[in-house]
Amino acid sequence: MSSLAHAPHQAPSGFIRRYIFSLDHKVIGIQYYFLALFSVLLGMTLSVLMRYHMVYPDARVSLFEKLWPTSAAGGIMTPELYLSLMTMHGTIMVFFVLTTAPQSGFGNYFLPIQIGAEDMAFPVLNMMSFWTTFLALIVMVAAFFVPGGAPLGGWTAYPPLSGVGAIAGPGQGAGQTLWVISIAIFCAASLMGAINFIATTVDLRARGMSMMRLPLTCWTWLVTAILGLLGFAVLLAAGVLLLLDRTAGTSFFLPAGLIVNDQILLNHKGGSPLLWQHLFWFFGHPEVYIAILPGMGVASQLLSTFARKPIFGYRAMVYAILGIGFLGFFVWGHHMFMSGMNPYSAFAFSVLTMSIGVPSAIKTFNWIGTLWGGKIRFTTAMLFALGFVSLFVSGGISGIFLGQPALDLYFHDTYFVVGHFHMIMGVAAIFGMFAGTFYWFPKVTGRLMNETMGKIHFYITFIGVYCIFTPMHFLGIAGNPRRYADFTNFEFMNALMPIHSFMTWAAVITAVAQLIFFINLFWSIKKGTPTGPNPWESTTLEWGIPSPPPFDNFAGVHPVVNHGPYEYAVPGAPKDYTMQTDPL
Amino acid sequence: MLLAPIVWILTIAICYFFIGHYWWFPAPISEHGVAYDEQFTITLAVTGIIFFLAQMALGWVIFKFKDDGKRANYSHGNNKLEAIWTSATAVLFIGLVLFGTRIWASVHFVAAPADALKIEVSAKQFAWNFRYPGPDGVFGKTDIKLINDAGGNAFGIDDKDPASKDDITSASIKVPAGKPIMLIMKSRDVIHNFFVRELRLKQDIVPGMEIPFHFQADKVGVYEVPCSELCGLGHHQMRTTLEVMSQADFEKWLRDQAAQK
Most buried pick, A19, A77, A583, B224, via CB within 10 A? Predict the structure, then answer.
């Protein structure tokens, strides 16, 4: 179990091999983290521009004209520009933030250390997966700068809109092609990462680190990697097929008899638009769990640590993670209840979808059980973990509506859906990342982040996201469709504009408050209070080594694990926390 | 601790807005719509109670269990509790979906009555067209090469087919109240979606497929139809109306349309 798949290596002395093309999982983890940080800043900016346009569709903004001279001529944002911002917001957030930071960022840095390994199983593959992801981001951002601009078909890129080229709208030409290429590259990168995570967890655990002694973070990274391996393989295939439809005249997703923009398309026949949806959501639903599972792991780790209590029901938590991962592959059809697929299949998909609510509920109950009777230390990291639980409940519960095909007859493609998934895979997942950042920052830098700035940022963000995303549920109940550039053409939507205004201003305030986090992060790297190896009195392996960790993590010593991951308040023990490596 | 009252206040505020119906569904205009609202209300009650209790409990543990320098209770959990909440949530969630299945079945598993009025729906980027078969009850042949939007032939109806002589087309949909309607939905370019809030019904329209869809509206009125599947830059402008008329008004409308041909 403790066999090493590679020889221990020394820190390279050159700057490029040490910090740019590094093989060190810790450097690669930080690279992923900063890639996600850049992406989240970009994605968040796009969302604020979108929210502004929805409320002030006729406003002349000179900044828009400077950024997009053609699609915002005169400073007025066109609907096609709005839709391209929306497409890029969704794509960048889902792929380059929610998939990269929790898994590839935190997982890369802490999975090997938490299991007692010197590095990932395949360091070269690890480096390649980061730089391939980086390439995918460059290609994606390049879509803004080609003629016609970024694609406008949404992050789901349903054909025929995404398959027939520029006649379907600006952005559907070169922009959509770059989008598909970027996604395919991203899939390849994610496959490399997934293989590495699985091999590392299976093969490189330290002596005594049985599967049932793994921290829950490691369990979530492992299951996320398995989801990535199976999901991204299918999306890669789908992406290649869509690219062929666009560039090589194939008809995987395009049926005969299409008349787009008054042109009859004679060169396509026999394809199925629904095939794309099946392939896309076979990836797309597990992707939701790719985004949220690592956040669940971080929340579990932090709730136990800061409540000074063992996690409630460790085994139940592991089974719930496995159950969510397994069931996650059998529910993709709930995205397609209205798609025209066989309505009988909706019945099967809905029962399986509701079943996935069960392990999710188990986790929530166990988190509250962990806190019950605890001695809670309210650090900023803990506040974000508690915020995660609250948002997870709020975002999860609306899934009980959407998982029923009968209720989806109204809610499909309304703001109810937008509110649901932003609450759970958007902000709950991001709260997991904030929690992880505050918790592990001292390990990475040897310094604490500033708690005052952290708490101000937490409270504004926590109240802010509720103010942005709760009203979306009411918009959905009133029937407001999503992906509308403006709402002035419909009488019933005009009546909902006060809610839209409220959400827009809540979004502006919340977005500005994120500056506090960025300032805190960079300020603390230089000026944070220096701290010892274990400021939180945690039990897992990373807290037993110096901060920052040495190049090979354990300085040549092979750690031996004697305890489970969350041994807090053990009766008769000398301290209130028993490290995993403490003697029996 | 500040977080506990914030969680409580947010929870109570959210429940207040859900109970007060400040922004809500329009009134239903069909039996299906009434059944839909019942299913929604039951789901809202079940999830609302879970939501309220879970958030209140979270606030409570945050409020109650502060660090006081003493050791916490050493406990790894309780299998009996795990079994209780696992089976309780399984019964509730799966029970809800099974209970709602009758509504889905009435829309999708049951065919339209044989006497239903057939209307063909054709969606294209940013416009709707509807076709009625006329007194003969038969739709005339169509050919995509004959499609000419500017010339008023959005369906590509073949004039040489005798069955096409009495076909009536319209840019909005008119139906008689209290009569079953059967839509045959087609799209010529990308995916669109036909959505009527007051009917509580929605269906994607997919190029290459003919999707049948039936409903019955019982209340006279004009209802907005927003396209509800992203179809391109004019998606937000793709609007038409469903006009539910009395049987007499509907027949008069049909006659007027036939006379104009």
Answer: A77
DSSP secondary structure letter of residue A483 = S
Amino acid A149 reads G
Rounded average pLDDT over A325-347: 96
Residues of chain B found within 8 Å of residue A474, distances taken between Cβ atoms: 17, 22-24
Q: Return the amino acid letter for A527.
A: K
Tokens of A365: 């109950």
Among candidates B23, B124, B235 on the partner chain, residue whose Cβ is nearest the Cβ of A483:
B235
Contact with chain A for residue B63, Cβ under 8 A: no
Kindly list the residues from chain A whose CB atom is less than 8 angstroms away from the CB atom of residue B70: 375
All structural domains of chain B: 3-64+82-108 (no CATH), 117-260 (2.60.40.420)
Q: Cβ(A337)–Cβ(B193) under 8 Å? A: no
Q: Measuring CA to CA, which residue among A70, A52, A90, A106 is closest to residue A215?
A: A106
Query: What residues are paired with B127 via a beta bridge?
Result: B124
Verify whether the Cβ–Cβ distance A390 to B7 is below 8 Å: yes
A426 CB-near residues (< 8 Å, 6+ apart): A93, A98, A469
Give residue A9's pLDDT: 56
The tokens for A404 are 């029923």
- State the Cα–Cα distance between residues B50 and A397, nearest whole angstrom: 8
Query: Of the candidates A393, A348, A346, which has an alpha carbon nearest to the alpha carbon of residue A368?
Result: A393
Burial of A75 (0-12, 13-18, 19+ CB in 10 A): middle
| Residue contacts between A and B (CB atoms, under 8 Å) | 328
For residue A213, what are its two tokens? 């002694």
Question: What does the longest C-alpha to C-alpha distance in chain A come to?
Answer: 81
Q: CA dihedral defined by B246, B216, B152, A266, rounded to 10 degrees? A: 180
| Domains of chain A and CATH, by start | 19-256+268-544 (1.20.210.10)
Q: Which of B66, B82, B208 sits opposite A316 (nearest CB)?
A: B82
pLDDT at B233 over 90: yes
CB atoms closer than 10 angstroms to residue A107: 31
Q: How far apart are the C-alpha atoms of A522 and A539, rounded to whole Å?
A: 27
What does the pLDDT look like over A430-470, one tens digit per residue?
A: 999 999 999 999 999 999 999 999 999 999 999 999 999 99
Neighboring chain B residues of A366 at a CB cutoff of 8 Å:
77, 82
B221: enclosing H helix or E strand: strand B221-226
**Residue A392: helix, strand or coil by DSSP?**
helix
Chain B residues lying within 8 Å of A323, measured CB to CB:
none
Contacts (Cβ under 8 Å, ≥6 apart) of A32: A100, A101, A104, A105, A108, A130, A133
pLDDT value of position A2: 42
Partner-chain residue, chosen from B43, B66, B190, that has the shortest CB–CB distance to A407: B43
Residues A406-427, mean pLDDT to the nearest whole number: 97
Residue A149 with chain B: CB contacts under 8 Å: none
> Which chain B residues are within 8 Å of A274, Cβ to Cβ?
206, 209
Cα separation values, A193 from A124, A126, A131, A227, B194, Å: 11, 6, 11, 12, 42
The verdict on A57 touching B (C-beta cutoff 8 Å) is no
Q: Is the N-terminal amide bond of A160 cis, ω within 30° of 0?
A: yes
Rounded distance between C-alpha atoms, residue A355 and residue B16, angstroms: 29
Testing the interface with A: which of B122, B228, B240 to mutate, by most A Cβ within 10 A?
Answer: B228
Q: Which of B16, B184, B229, B241 should one mutate to test binding to chain A, selecting the residue with the greatest count of A CBs within 10 A?
A: B229
Interchain contact, A256 vs B236, CB within 8 Å: no
Closest CA to A203 of A106, A119, A105, A130: A119
Has residue B163 got a pLDDT over 70? yes
Whether A251 and A276 have beta carbons less than 8 Å apart is answered as: no
* Phi, psi (degrees; rounded to nearest 5) at A11: -65, 125
Q: Name the residue with tokens 């370019």.
A: B189
Interhelix angle A123-142/A174-203, nearest 10 degrees: 160
